[in-house]
Design a protein that fits this description.
single chain, about 425 residues, alpha+beta, 5-stranded mixed beta sheet, 13 helices, HATPase_dom, membrane, protein dimerization activity
Length: about 425
């Protein structure tokens, strides 16, 4: 059972005892009055006494036991307490022993009154209790015990007000604690419902992620085939054509054939690694800046175009997907330069910033109209493949070019460190 359940159960038991206590106290006082008989205390006749007892019992039954819902109506409760206080005074007038019943008025004041009225009600009950302690109204008037009565009254009122104040504070604290427990239980229920809903959403996301993964893998393989096989075959064709043109120069012809063979071997290795979804071959041997430098140097040597790599910022290990995307972007951009730009110089800039990594590839070639570039069988798939690859890792790709003014390709990707994978 939770703390809130135990608290509510304990409160219900206490409420039941509170309902029975006035009846028990009234019955016990009446028994004392009947059993003790005439012991010198001022008293009224039994018919009058029994009539007051019957009236008090009826008042308790009607106002509390038979109508428990009236406890939520403040004005009705004030009426109930004032009537009970008057009946307590009548009972004490009938016999001082009803002072044992009078103390239940403190319980009624705490249950029926609010705020400072609760203290005033406790003071009224204390007056009746003080009268019973000096022998009743008749003894007070006959013996003129005004000074002792004043002392007893002050003591009773002081104790009653102090105890009522402390019990009120404790009750307020208990109410606030119960409210906090209820709010906590509601929050736990909402959390449990949210967790259940999240579990359902997670199941849906798994299905969607599986479907998206299939599509993403198809796109990845398309990009890998384009980046690896298309570039490799283009380089092989270029070298073989150069070898044919160098038929009279055996040294140049051999060099072009050797280069074509090496490109074929590298392309085959890359194709196998792409199928296995491993990192690109240069990244398997070195970090991204070194791998890019290797790619740039090899491309420059094959095509006879001056190319340089500039790295800015502190290089740091990133997720493999980030490094692979930037390397593939550089390879595709250089392949486009070789096929279309007729450039004399290419500059690559790899910049490590705080939250992102950027790769800029600029050439001084012929340029083109970016708006007219479309994917197709004629080789226009390059920009589309680069953009899709970068977007898969939440990056962006920008292309700036115009005919006769060169081309600038800029890829910006999040700088996710290797530690983020954990």
């Amino acid at each position: 059972m939770t703390d809130l359940g135990r608290l509510e159960r304990s409160q219900r038991r206490a409420d039941r005892r509170m309902l029975l206590m006035p009846y028990a106290a009234l019955a016990g006082s009446t028994v004392l009055v009947v059993v003790t008989g005439d012991i010198g205390l001022p008293r009224q006749g039994l018919p009058v006494t029994f009539g007051a007892v019957a009236a008090t019992t009826a008042w308790l039954l009607w106002m509390v036991t038979l109508h428990p819902g009236w406890a939520q109506r403040p004005r009705v409760m004030v009426t109930y307490f004032l009537g009970l206080l008057a009946l307590i005074a009548v009972l004490v007038w009938c016999h001082p022993f009803y002072g044992f019943f009078a103390w239940t008025g403190y319980l009624a004041a705490a249950a029926a009154l609010r705020g400072r009225w609760r203290l005033a009600g406790a003071a009224g009950v204390a007056c009746c209790t003080a009268v019973s302690q000096v022998g009743g109204f008749g003894n007070l008037v006959a013996a003129r015990l005004w000074l002792p009565f004043a002392s007893v009254l002050m003591f009773n009122v002081g104790i009653a007000v102090a105890m009522t104040f402390l019990s009120t504070m404790n009750a307020d604290h208990a109410a606030r604690r119960a409210e906090m427990l209820r709010e906590l239980a509601e929050a736990n229920a909402r959390l449990a419902a949210a967790l259940a809903e999240n579990a359902g959403l997670h199941a849906q996301l798994l299905v969607q992620a599986r479907e998206a993964g299939v599509l993403d893998e198809r796109q990845r393989m398309a990009g890998e085939i384009h980046d690896v096989l298309a570039q490799g075959l283009t380089g092989i064709v270029t070298q073989l054509e150069a070898a044919d043109q160098a038929a009279g120069r055996e040294g140049d012809r051999r060099r072009h054939l050797d280069t074509a063979k090496q490109l074929a071997r590298d392309s085959l290795t890359e194709a196998r690694r792409s199928v296995l979804a491993l990192r690109p071959q240069p990244l398997a041997r070195a970090a991204l800046p070194d791998a890019l430098a290797e790619v740039v140097d090899g491309w420059s040597a094959r095509h006879g175009v001056t190319a340089e790599l500039i790295t800015t910022g502190a290089a740091r290990p990133l997720l493999p997907e980030i490094d692979a995307t930037l390397l593939r972007t550089a390879q595709e951009a250089l392949a486009n330069v070789a096929r279309h730009a007729r450039a004399g110089r290419v500059a690559l800039t790899l910049s490590y910033l705080e939250d992102v990594v950027t790769l800029d590839v600029r050439d001084d070639g012929a340029g083109f109209d970016p708006a007219g570039s479309r994917a197709g069988p004629d080789g226009g798939y390059g920009l589309t493949a680069m953009r899709q690859r970068v977007q898969r890792i939440a990056g962006t790709l920008a292309v700036e070019s115009e005919p006769g003014a060169g081309t600038a390709v800029s890829a910006c990707v999040p700088a996710l460190p290797v530690a983020a994978a954990a």
